[in-house]
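Before the break, one more example. Copy the sequence into your notebook; we will annotate it together after we see the structure.
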Amino acid sequence: MPETNRTWWIYQGTNQPDKEAITRLPPAPPWRQFTDKASDNRGTQFKPTDPNEIELVNAALYLRRPLLVTGRPGTGKTTLAFAVAHELQLGKVLHWSITTRSTLPEGLYRYDAIARLQDASLRGDRTTLPDISRYLRLGPLGTAFAAGKRPRVLLIDEIDKSDIDLPNDLLHIFEEGEFEIPELARLPKDQQTVKIRSYDDNGETIEIKQGRVRCQEFPLVIMTSNGEKEFPPAFLRRCLRLEMQPPTKEQLSEIVTAHLASISKEEIAGLLDEFVQRREKQDLANDQLLNAAYLVLNSIKVLERQELQDALWKSLSGEGE
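Here is what the structure looks like once it is written out:
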């Protein structure tokens, strides 16, 4: 391999220790930084690719209905929630990532009964249990419905990965706007006003009366789906549906320059052409273009390195390989 191709390498593969090599590593891409500031800025670079996206977000806000967002991976479904929360100053996005094991109670609240019993045992007084509020914490869904007069943004990410029952289980809370915490409802009446922790990491507590949580203002619920399964008609009837469209070449250019302000359009012109051509045959995401653009910004000639280019732009579905 020509020597000039190695100039950007940090790891050389020589097995010769070099303590200073890592100091040549440039700052991380903005989307791969994990500081509190980077987390707070998530969504600030989002640019809607279609006015319909803006209209449906507003319709969901007006109607107090959940928004089901579908589209190809990497089209900005998740980032949309952060962009709305940032622009409307609705606080930190309440993020609930769905798996096949996710259940409605997990999203509403968690009660650590075992820890409570253990603490009572350690105190040597098994007749009087410790204050229950120390062992309860609202989940992302529960916090969204327990919030005050300003709505929160709740992101239910990849809901199509859920068990078949979860969409149906969500229907009641979406329609009624309330839920019960049985552990609090069973307390004596003089103990039924309890402050418990919210899902936020800021130590905030929320007052719950008589074990019932009822929303004052319906949250903006954004649910993302990659189309891995169909949803029940009753569930779809209660949602507004938005399909995110892949951005055009011009919009891709704006996305790249929004994330990498110091890169010029001339530097990425060839990269955009190649990416758009590949996207016609392969299932590619926007962040795959951003990864390549970041390397170009650091003087790494991606288009001249076919194997690197193929690795960066590998089809997400395997089609077109």
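The CA atoms of residues 182 and 211 lie 6 Å apart. Residues 265-279 form the longest helix (15 residues). Try to locate both features in your own notes.
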